[in-house]
Amino acid sequence: MNVPICELCVKSNVLCSGCEDKVKKGKLSKLEVKLSRLLYKMKDKYNLENADLTKAIDLDRVVIVLTKKDVGVLIGKEGKVVSEMSKELGKKVRIAEMSGDIRKTLSDIVAPAKIMGINKLYKKDGSIYKVRFSKKEIKQLPMDINTLEKALKYLLDSDVMIVFE
Ligand SMILES: [Zn+2]
């Protein structure tokens, strides 16, 4: 199982200084800590040996769990794993694949809305992703635009601009 906290922390209720440091630096969220421990508890019951939790993002109404492996593992048979996570967090949970293909990852997150295009723009002080949607897709977005922008910033570790055309 691959989770963002160390093996020691996954089994205990306190964080070691290494993991605590990651939280302080904003590299690790409380939500990710909680989900890591939850998955560990569920490991034997649902065969989560090969599960991968890379990041988790709280979007108010929904929590996005990002995995570098097959999303099916974290969804589970008949959606049992994802529904248990959802019960525990008291929110809808959506699993998305985080691969080198940013467009694919973002598509999973914003579904059923469809992305028109993603451009990476380079500025003097870094880069910014411009994520473009058609105007008629606004209603299809599973979260509000501010929340989405914040989530994508965390996910891409870069500035993000969302535009509707
Ligand atoms: Zn630790």
Task: Please outline the helices and strands.
Blueprint lengths: L6 H5 L5 H8 L5 H17 L8 E4 L3 E6 L3 H5 L4 H10 L2 E6 L4 H9 L4 E9 L2 E8 L11 H12 L2 E6 L1
Parallel strand pairs: 2-3, 5-6
Antiparallel strand pairs: 1-2, 4-5
Bound molecules: zinc ion.
The site of zinc ion has 8 residues, from helix 1 and helix 2.
CATH H-level superfamily title of the domain at 100-165:
K homology (KH) domain
Per DSSP E runs of 2 or more residues, the count of β-strands stands at 6
For the largest beta-sheet, the strand count, sense and barrel status come to: 3 strands, mixed
Helix percent band:
40-55%
Per CATH, what is the topology of the domain at 100-165? GMP Synthetase, Chain A, domain 3
Radius of gyration: 16 Å
Strand order in space, largest sheet? 1-2-3
**Beta content:** 15-25%
CATH architecture of the domain at 100-165: 2-Layer Sandwich
- Say which molecules are bound, naming each kind only once: zinc ion
Global mean pLDDT: 92
Structural class: alpha/beta
What does this structure look like?
The protein has 165 residues and is an alpha/beta fold. The protein has a domain at 100-165: GMP Synthetase, Chain A, domain 3 (2-Layer Sandwich). The protein has helices spanning 7-11, 17-24, 30-46, 71-75, 80-89, 102-110, 145-156, and strands at 55-58, 62-67, 92-97, 115-123, 126-133, 159-164. Strands 1-2-3 form a three-stranded mixed β-sheet, with helices on both faces. A three-stranded mixed β-sheet has the order 4-5-6. Helix 3 packs antiparallel against helix 5 (80-89). The chain is globular. Bound molecules: zinc ion. Residues 5-6, 8-9, 15-16, 18-19 line the site of zinc ion.
